[in-house]
Amino acid sequence: MAFSQNVEDMKHAEARLNTFLLYPELLWFQKYQFLTVLRRTGSMMPLASGLAYVGAWVNHSKGSILGATLTVPAHTGRILIAALALLVGWTGSHFWSLVCFVLHQFRATSHSEDGLHYQQQVLLRSRVSDTTILFRLLEIGIAWRKHTRCSIRRILPLLLAASTNIAVFLVAGILSSRATNAGSEVLAKGKCGFLRSVNDPSPGFMTGEILLDRNIFYMAAYTSFREESFYVRSCYGNHKGKESDLCNFYTTPFIESRVDKNASCPFSTDMCSVPAISFDTGLIDSNDHLGINSRSGDRVQMRKVTTCAPIDTEKYSSDWTYEQKLGLSWFFEEQILNDIYRYYNFGDGLLYDVPTFNFTTVISNASVNFQASPYNIDMATFSAENTEYSEFIPIPELSHTDADLTLLFLTNRAIYTGEVNDPWFKATTQIDTTWSNDTRIPDSILSVIGCTEQY
Q1: CB-neighbour burial class of residue 194 (10 A; exposed 0-12, middle 13-18, buried 19+)
Q2: Closest by Cα among 309, 311, 313 to 276
Q3: What are phi and psi of 226, to 5 degrees?
């Protein structure tokens, strides 16, 4: 798992790049063009769907010369290949005429020469093709063997010139088809940008227009999440070796991360009950990995290391109490009469960048027992360099000056038909039921995973 939270001292380009890691189709680089890819396939889906730019552009991965690219639809490409082959042939014939003229002028002389010389000159002026002149020269050389010395050797320069011209334009004609590459890299069309709500009302002032704007915002984010989750399931893990149109849509089908399942605890050692897990992306290049088409001097490389570990929650939780602390209304808009609460203190909570309450999260008896699903997940974040983007101030055991911190809270009311030893979902407490001989409930109602993120 990797969770994005910007670090204040990151370069602005790196911050935007980090957003792209989670939402690749939402990033807007004002200076760069966005390059998306269909590789090793014949699919022209981006062109047919209008996603690809049609026209001339430069693929900076290959340089300004070799990267010069013209993107056209498939039917236009077939016409272009045929026209290019004809153009190569036409160019070859006219180039040979120029070669003949130059050779004729170079060989012209005011002195008297023999018949072999003049026959060669006549051939050069006759504007015949390079293939024809090749056979005519052989005929002339053979015919003059008995009448002049070294006739074959004297026609060799012209034979070599004609043969070279034939070979060069024959190869050029064959390679002309390689000037097109169906299903290769295309440049994305249009603009993309941060998915951001237009309206930012003051607390408590919500109009119909703002609610509509927020609904659109959340639906777009949800749709993006579903599409990218499907991509991960299809193209990562056991499926990453499979070639398909879906997995070849981006420049790099999948970005390999280094996973360490026995990493050191990122917090005070007494906070981690099991080894941590670490995800290291390595250096991700904006052009090579993400397909942001830009010159080498404008590219960005970024590395992200995420380390997560379950946290022992019991020592940081209160007993069940009727006390309604300051800040409770931030978690529960309405309090039920005689409801009891349990507070968890991993650091003082912040409201609008101001420490406001002396706990991080809270659960209530009613919220747990009447929650709609067996699992409920919440989170709290801390930005190492800017509390404006933080929701709490971590306690010393969790505090980092060189990493962002995210706490994930799992409220678990599931009932299991067997023992669960996963550290986050741990359920070893056995209860008696009539419908199972081995019924287990979670050892803790609220489980916490802490993650540090470094860039």
Answers
A1: exposed
A2: 309
A3: -65, -45
Cα–Cα dist 364/338, whole Å:
11
Residue 391, φ and ψ in degrees, nearest 5: -110, -10
309: burial class by Cβ within 10 Å (0-12, 13-18, 19+)? buried
Burial 315-326 (b: 16+ CB within 10 A, else e): ebbeeeeeeeee
Q: How far apart are CA 419 and CA 441, in angstroms?
A: 9
Tokens at 131, concatenated: 């293939």
DSSP label of 307: E
Tens digits of residue pLDDT in 15-33: 333 333 333 333 333 333 3
| Amino acid, res. 239 | H
Strand partners, 440: 416, 430
Residue pLDDT, tens place only, 117-172: 888 888 888 878 888 888 888 888 888 877 777 778 888 888 888 888 888 888 88
Q: Are 293 and 33 in contact (CB under 8 A)?
A: yes
